């Protein structure tokens, strides 16, 4: 087993969020309206901080928290920035009217842990993906789902940019939904398509994360083998598809745990179990910035609503099993990085062409 090259938890000199969770962090999400950051954790808690930035000075103030009965795996905000949804191993989603100080209430249920969650403002519906092999759409005012979609396997990843929804499941299935018709308009089970067998694709190994393009023309997919695929939906743009390696070091291969598009420049970040996060430009096929590796994995990350802050968690991600987890030495951190324009703004490709 490799060790991380440095014992430095914060080699990029990011700002450390105060009072982090007591166990590994499973998701991070910023309010779409203000700098409120929510984190979910394996300690059964959902926490919110208010982030204040003045130039390069950042302050974080714990604002509120709620509890689930079991570890919490996913979170999202309502588009008006008033309400947080969280789901996890207790098989339920809680709706937390955070800004009004209201009490959380259960608004969705599954038969197995809920791995992914998304609020779809264009439909005024909540989407939940579970290990029970279903995707459900909920009107939060009703106790039953408005639609239940059977999935080919357990839900591992989900991303929505209306009308495009991408769901990644076990066994390397990727399902593409057109939400203008919530019944599936077309399903791409990519591993079954012969043309995809000819390329070394991220779908050769387990899907870890997906991210819909901001222009809804395609999606990114990241896998446990340190590879990202850039996929376009239009048949006429298939020649733009490519895969690239990342989060690898000295023959060690690490999972790509998070894919986040910058809300302004539409470049994207990857974060991995190697403890690094990088910024990329898919259109010029280049890495814009490689950040130094932290001493623990990065299981999740997110941009704030204007892209001026990038939040990432640094903690054990369980990818090497319980036997490699030392609770006495393992600490949990949430860091805030201020992206520089040179790190996240597209620039023309120079020099050699081809795949990275």
UniProtKB/TrEMBL annotation:
Repeat (WD) residue spans along the chain: 18-59, 65-106, 107-148, 249-290
Region (Disordered): 1-22
Keywords, alphabetical: Repeat, WD repeat
Record keyword Repeat present: yes
Pfam families: WD40 (PF00400)
InterPro entries: WD40/YVTN_repeat-like_dom_sf, WD40_PAC1, WD40_repeat_dom_sf, WD40_rpt
Organism: Arachis hypogaea
Protein name (record): Protein RAE1
Biased composition annotated in UniProt, kind: Polar residues: 1-17
SMART domains: WD40
